Amino acid sequence: MAEHPSDRYHALVRRAAEDAAELERAYRQAVVSGEEAFFRQAVAAALQDGRRTPVLIAWGYRLDLLPLPAPAEKTRPDHQLAEPSRPWGIVLAISLGLGFLWTLMAGDRPPVPFPDTARPLFWLGWPPTTGLAILAYLALAGKPGVRERRWLMTAAVLVALAALAGGLAWNRTDDVAFLTALHLPLAIVLALGLGVTASADRPGAQWFPLLLKYAEVLLTAGVYVLAATFLGILTSGIFQVLGVNIPPEIVEKAAAFVWGTVPVLAVASVYDARALPAHQDLTQGPLRLLRLFARLALPAVAGVLAVYLIGFLPQHFWRGFEDRSLLFVYNLTIVTILGLMALAVPAAREAAAGFPWLRRGLALTTALTLLLNAYALAAALSRVWNFGLTPNRHAVIGWNVVTLVLLAAILYSQRRATDRDWPERFAAALVRFLPLVAAWVVWVLLASPLIW
């Protein structure tokens, strides 16, 4: 019986841990034979097991398995992550400027991203201005001289998206406007991702770590917003006790300013602008809590899905075809489960072989979610057949197709995976179809206002 490539490369890497020439020959052969992923996984496993020879450490840097130490920290051991420094003066200046800009854009209306409540300048303006502010932080706090042109090109893309979306949806408050309000931030996030990964030798390898950092930024921003809201409520209560009523207009302007300062602060708190996404620490901080929560929640999610699909759905099969609010719940559930699964996957520096139960749980959850996704797509298509195509149904069907493709790709990737390389195959399957996600986001953003 032929030896599996994964076992062959693990044995080779351990045998040649101090032989640079042999490892180089093995890597070149792996590239030619399409087995680069097995070589990379073998190096990661050797580093995880403590085989930190100078040759393997160099390969860890080359394959984005180890974070590069900052120049000032060269006296540290190579395998230790240097403490990231932040130019907090720049961060505070950008954050305060963005908060002031949010206040101006909100005007005399609430600072919320709803077209029927906020000014068009705010609900169309907050995503691109926030994106440009984050871009300014990344450019000013990053390594000097590292392809600054990419930041200018990314800024041009953000401005173009804002101009097109604003020109097509200005003063609209219908379903198309709400779709624009939902998809414009997604388009900005994807454009920022292109700018962040453009300087990497292998941009595709940066996207999965970047998605994880996005989740960490969202959690951090949520904590900041909750803390600011709590302090605001406490302050208002103190003034009310003193008999002073703060006018609602002042409260709205204060909320716009404070909330506007949060995005850049959240990014700066968890993302080192000097390093690529794959060089960030993916095992500590808020992301560690998110990973732990995702792994603990996975059995419950799989159990609920199994009970629903086996026990409830057969008895109420046609309810999803009749209740459109249920379709919204389905789609939100599917996207949430995809996010939980991505967070649960072991990081590059974790031993994948130590999570056999997690691999099986992810495969089961993916299969169950795929069934729910297929049912939701059938129900959405049925509503189009019976009631016609609307902007919301158009968007929902597209997202159902996108998530169906993602789930199918993830499930298929695990068929040939081993206990050592399954996290890498999971990440590769998800990243491979991110262009499909981006294409649908841009299509809904720009085509919906023209069609309806």
What does this structure look like?
- The protein has helices spanning 5-15, 20-32, 36-48, 54-62, 88-106, 120-123, 126-141, 149-169, 175-197, 204-241, 248-270, 285-312, 319-322, 324-344, 356-387, 391-413, 422-432, 434-451.
- 72% of the residues lie in helices and 0% in strands.
- The chain is globular and about 75 Å long.
- The termini are far apart.
- It is mostly helical and 452 residues long.
At a glance:
By secondary structure, the protein is mainly α. It is built from 18 helices and no strands.
Tell me the layout of helices and strands.
Elements: H1 5-15, H2 20-32, H3 36-48, H4 54-62, H5 88-106, H6 120-123, H7 126-141, H8 149-169, H9 175-197, H10 204-241, H11 248-270, H12 285-312, H13 319-322, H14 324-344, H15 356-387, H16 391-413, H17 422-432, H18 434-451
Helix pairs in contact: 1-3, 2-3, 3-4, 5-7, 5-11, 7-8, 7-9, 7-11, 8-9, 8-18, 9-18, 10-11, 10-17, 12-14, 12-15, 14-15, 14-16, 15-16, 16-17, 16-18
Number of strands: 0
Number of domains: 3
Order of helices and strands: HHHHHHHHHHHHHHHHHH
How does the helix and strand content classify structurally? mainly alpha
Q: How much helix, percentage-wise, in residues? A: over 70%
Sequence stretches where pLDDT stays below 50 over 5 or more residues: 72-82
The main β sheet shows up as:
none
Task: Choose one word for the global shape.
Answer: globular
